[in-house]
Amino acid sequence: MSQFVSQFSANAIVGEPEVVEDARSVRSLATHPAWLALKEAAVALQQVQVKDGSVPEEADKAGAAQQVDAIIASISELAPHFPHDAAYLDALRADFRRWADDGLGVPDFLDALNAFQPQQHRVDGLGHLVVFPMYTQNGSTNRLVEAVLVEVIWPEFIAELEAGDYGNKLFVPLRFVDFTPGYDTNSAVLFPETVAMREIPSFTWGAIFQDREAARYRRVVRAASEITKLELPDDAAAMLDDQKLAEETFVMWDLIHDRSHMRGDLPFDPFMIKQRMPFFLYSLEELRCDLTAFRESVRQERELKALPDAELSEAQRQIRDHAKLVQYAVIFDRIFRFAITGSRVRNYDGLGGQLLFAWMHQHDVLHWTDTQLTIDWEGVPEVVVALSDRINDLYWRSIDRPKVSHWLAAYEMLTETLTPNPASHWARGLPDEILAGVPKGYTDQVLDDEFPLSMFYEALNKKMAGVIESTAGITGHSDEK
To answer: What is the pTM of this model?
Structure first.
């Protein structure tokens, strides 16, 4: 959601106490007849929609219109539970009605999207009913009608962080309550650009499902630590047994990560400008933001630990304690899940995990000896921050470089730590006709798996693949055993 950072200026507001109290009943709505009817109608509608969200077959239109009527009726029945979203739910019903009246062509829900402003109501436990024709990242690529019941995660210490050095008015952390099939997947985000609409507005929010991130992390890291015989520090182990603690840790991580995309010495704007680049550039950008969250957490932990505990507020104590957990989360999620999740086709998150693991190994804070993984936690902060510095220096220097020269410098930096594919055109040196040509020639020469898995990861992947696959659709309410 980094592409939204520069486009929002309004201040967040808090809900009235009676609104919050009412909205906290959102979990009970998962069994409400109106919600169940809405889900049933949405699923039925999905069966006759095509990729762009329309219902093209004349034989399907009458039945689809009936499902739209059922969705509108359900929204009307559920609306009193969400008074803070009244304008949105009114616009939503109007958009559904117009879509049906116009013959169920390509849907346009811009009016409802513009009325939905969850960033204005960041109150812990606040509920939202979200219904749109949309695709779900890492899930369905079709713009089908999806429905989600969610609640906001906004503990006091996060509010203090966001009000201080880590302002991010667009960031909305969420927890799943219930959802339609598009979210029974790996998707852990709710982004406005996924909605079917006639034009692109200035986006004002972006949401991440931290309960899914946390539950996925707990399952994967528990299994990986057992497989690699890694002895976890007590506080890292405690996070694996506490879903709420893990959720709050991921909220802190994502708050800092998200704002980092538009801050620093940036040679390019990686998401505002839709540009084709070698996938490893996106690897470095995502890792840069994660390592910024890591280094900021190191700073917060050290500064607050230096103060007497009695002088700290409860929120400061929470920031201090969660800051250490963010450091564990960045490392373990990156090296255990990111590196071996997804295909080997331009897997930029996977590459970032491989780089972090190899960097730590080659700088002697991570060891794989006698088939056991050990980590020198005392030395980890300096080593990981050094990788952050290395990427930041690449960016700073690249401000003065042509675009393709930045690409070449980034590749050189990666190959200082990772071994490229033996068949790599880049590793052998691109020919003069490519170097003197257009950027597309460079990207065409990048192999889908430019940096294959190491032998360590090949072995780990065989044992972890099933665990990682099992996390599709996981939520904070899922059974972890």
So the answer is: 0.92
